[in-house]
Design brief:
257 residues, alpha/beta, 2-enoyl-CoA Hydratase, Chain A, domain 1, Lyase 2-enoyl-coa Hydratase, Chain  A, domain 2, six-stranded mixed β-sheet, four-stranded mixed β-sheet, 10 strands, binds acetoacetyl-coenzyme A, Enoyl-CoA_hyd/isom_CS, fatty acid metabolism, enoyl-CoA hydratase, ClpP/crotonase-like_dom_sf
């Protein structure tokens, strides 16, 4: 399928999505959302895809929701259509998604990165929630996901002042998992995605579900949820294969990859 705002490729068992609106620093408009939803649906339907990498350009991962598209919208209309709620579908991807971020990840761009399972950043990355400087607030999860990622003090600082933080500060704060040189960014993200895609898909998807449950429930319930998933994996042939391969000192050949 041809996309207007995305470049979609597959690299082995990994899907690579590149946001492609260079004239607007990859600002996220309704076409980007519609196309990302279609791309994600195709990745989930494709058994061979084990992980997804989403990236932007060297200058910008994405500079936010599209301000030009939003500027004249009226309250009643956006309330009735529940404007931007469609991004929840992107956050609910069941296969693992890695954000490879270079340059600006602002507003909706930072929020899109935070919808991914983890963020690998280039040394040039800049994260922020500048919506307050436009007379609004984050609308795609920034006040919630940023706070869970970096804690109240740093989230308040960023959301109330609209300032940007660089990659080093983002790594110190726990927003990103790794920072690499700009020229290493894509290779690093693709290598992580390839590793994930080489593993047993049910265990990968359950691991993702289990970690995400930590944000939704009590410790007691989360531990029970994790243990039940752990038990259920013993019903898969991949558990037998993974453990046999360890004991026999060989590489596992998983069926569900
Ligand atoms: N929406 C629409 N267009 C955008 C955009 C956005 N979020 N960000 C950048 N652009 C456009 C600019 O308008 C400009 O287009 P023209 O050449 O046609 O004027 C082009 O991209 C290049 O941008 P700049 O000339 O501004 O580039 P710069 O290097 O001087 O500045 C920047 C870069 C600091 C990222 C600056 O573009 C900027 O501040 N962008 C807006 C960031 C922002 O406020 N994001 C939050 C959006 S609201 C939101 O996301 C709501 C939500 O939570 C759902």
């Amino acid at each position: 399928m041809a996309y207007e705002t995305l470049i979609v490729e597959t690299r082995g068992n990994v899907a690579l999505v590149t946001l492609n609106r260079p004239q607007a620093l990859n600002a996220l408009n309704s076409t980007v959302l519609k196309e990302l939803k279609a791309a994600y649906a195709a990745f989930h339907a494709d058994e061979a895809i084990g992980a997804i990498v989403i990236t932007g350009s060297e200058r910008a991962f994405a500079a936010g929701a599209d301000i030009k598209e939003m500027q004249s919208l009226q309250f009643a209309d956006i309330y009735k259509s529940d404007f931007i709620s469609g991004w929840d579908d992107i956050a609910k991807a069941r296969k693992p998604v890695i954000a490879a971020v270079s340059g600006f990840a602002l507003g909706g761009g930072c929020e899109l990165a935070m919808m991914c399972d983890f963020i690998i950043a280039s040394e040039t990355a800049k994260f922020g929630q500048p919506e307050i400087t436009l007379g609004v607030i984050p609308g795609m999860g920034g006040s919630q996901r940023l706070t869970r990622a970096v804690g109240k003090a740093k989230a308040m600082d960023l959301v109330l002042t609209g300032r940007m933080m660089d990659a080093a500060e983002a790594e110190r704060s726990g927003l990103v998992s790794r920072v690499v040189a700009p020229e290493r960014l894509l290779d690093e993200a693709l290598a992580a995605a390839e590793k994930i895609a080489s593993l047993s898909q049910p265990s990968v998807m359950m691991a993702k579900e289990a970690v995400n449950r930590a944000f939704e429930t009590t410790l007691e319930e989360g531990l029970r949820f994790e243990r039940r998933l752990f038990h259920s994996l013993f019903a898969t042939d991949d558990q037998k294969e993974g453990m046999a391969a360890f004991v026999e000192k060989r590489k596992p050949a998983f069926n569900h990859r």
